[in-house]
What we know:
Elements: E1 2-3, E2 6-7, H1 10-20, E3 24-28, H2 35-48, E4 52-57, H3 60-74, E5 79-83, E6 86-88, E7 94-98, H4 99-107, E8 116-121, H5 133-141, E9 148-153, H6 159-170, E10 174-178, E11 186-192, E12 196-198, H7 200-206, H8 229-236, E13 242-245, H9 249-262, H10 268-281, H11 284-287, H12 290-299, E14 303-306, H13 312-323, E15 329-332, E16 346-349, E17 353-355, E18 360-362, H14 365-372, E19 384-389, H15 397-405, H16 419-428, H17 431-438, H18 442-449, H19 456-469, E20 473-474, E21 478-479, H20 481-486, H21 493-500, H22 510-521, H23 536-546, H24 550-555, H25 558-572, H26 577-580, H27 588-608, H28 612-625, H29 628-635
Parallel strand pairs: 3-9, 3-10, 4-7, 4-8, 5-7, 8-9, 11-19, 13-15, 13-16, 14-15, 16-19
Antiparallel strand pairs: 1-2, 5-6, 11-12, 17-18, 20-21
Amino acid sequence: MQFKGLTLDDFQVEAIKHIEDNLSVVVSAPTGTGKTLVADYTISKFLNAKRRVIYTAPIKALSNQKYKDFINDYGKDKVGIMTGDMVINPDAPLLVMTTEIYRNMLLANDEIIEHLSYVIFDEIHFISDRERGTVWEESIIFSPSPIRFLCLSATIPNANEFAEWISSIKGHDVKVVEHNKRAVPLSHYIFEKHLGIAKTDDLAQIIGIPDYNIHRKGKRRQREFPAYHLDLIREIKDKVPCIYFSFNRKKCERYAGELAKIKDYVSQTQKAEIIRIIRQYLNDEVRQMKSYHRLRACLNRGIAYHHAGLLPNLKEIVERLFEKGLISVLYATETFAVGINMPAKTVCFDSLEKFDGYVFRYLNSKEYFQLAGRAGRRGIDREGTVIALVDRRKTDVNKVKQITNKDIEPIVSQFRLSFNTVLNLVKNHTDDEIDTILKSNFDYFLKQKSDKQVRITASFNNKVRKLTSMGYTVGGEKLTDKGRFAIHIYFEELLISEMFFSSMYKQLSETEINCLIAAIIYEERRSDVFKTGRSKDLYVHILKVIGKNNYVMRHINKTSLFRLISLIRSWSDGKEFSELLEFTNLLEGDIIRLFRRMIDVMKQIRKATTDPEFREKIRNCIKKIDRDIVKAEFEG
């Protein structure tokens, strides 16, 4: 079978046959094997039949990339995008959106859902994500029964169990299509200071051997340093382009700078092409920034770095240069591997351990293969090379073998009931329907199979009692005006509702409201630094106003509020973006993302309120944040 000028593999043909039969399909196949062709076929089929398709992605960067790709394929009039901060052509037959937006539309009974035929869930294994997995489950649970799903993922060991769950709650057949062979096979190695590039078994043989640099009795023992990224880069020589994954943004930048001092990968002709591409994506404001000049010094030598803290324009420059083969070594965090189809000849790991926000741990096999799968370019390389930097004194060899052998991580449920979901259940469903929905999550399905007790109904009832005691529901069966406000808030719904479902806003300036929203959204990192010189007056006044509500005073992060005021006040009062860097060590991309998330939450508040005066005030709050480089990113 041919599609888009390509001869399809058997697994692609099988998946397409099930789509033609109007079934849901779970496609489990390694990175780089062509799962997206199945999605492209589905989109083409339903667009030709004048029916609507939604494509959901786990992160905004992937949504943006897919939006651009689909415009090239189907034309601007056929494609729309809806993320928290961007809505373009929402009536289009093909809509790209984050999974959160799709879930929110379902809960709100958005009219778009009425005309929907298929939903494509890219990277469906994100259902296992500790923080966001609930969103994927609710997206499936709350979808009307006529809607069909195409779920795409790298290897899912329990794909049949996952499909069985969907089938049990949606009442139609769900087919699993598995393909285990990579188009380009991977070879896995470790790199140890004394062994060089070797197999894991070679490392096992030298574990526990005394330090190599102790020569004779009585000689002073020298400290032994583990292998460094430059040692590995020297070894791989012609095995470029290489993506070198580090789980630390600052290391990515430092490593690129260190390599750029000793290595130049590009010819004069290539340098001219690099300059031409940079000019395409650069604006005057970005050109003035130190971060641009730091990156530019690396790009000129065929070296780059990529992480979520970079300005969007700079990330796009790096991606375009890498795509065109003008980057030989790219230092990147793991966000580069989510959905972005940019393979390399070699993938290196600075470590097989990372801090996940809770503990310092080894990668699991799914995380490893998500990143390792970028090695090996179809039609170019005979194999993809994957090399992990290790320290023989600290490495758990058995753990390394387990991680790198094959992907053994099943999809698991992270389902948790939010107050927003509870409010929407009370508003839209009868008691019997609520009982059915509560027992529709994947966790309940798995535990029922293993005869484990499930306390989901008790959790729901406890939340209803709390909502009733706080004035959001009456008798547990009806929403109050405050409850109707809260159903539009999808993040920290009780804190935001307690704060803004009242006349409290009248005592707060627009800048002060912005400071409160920022304090709610901000996710603290231990290394973050803020200057707070101009904060005290606003801080004291804000606390005086919100102090009348005990819930707000108990739950607002007062430390974050105090630390953020100078930054937010400066931007709200019209300062240049470059001036903000005087107030914090946050990276530019992090500042922009904070502002974009503020705008998203403020739009939810504006939609929630029925008070025209407050709605206008929130509109002005948004205007103060959504300007210049922040607005340019929104429009871009």
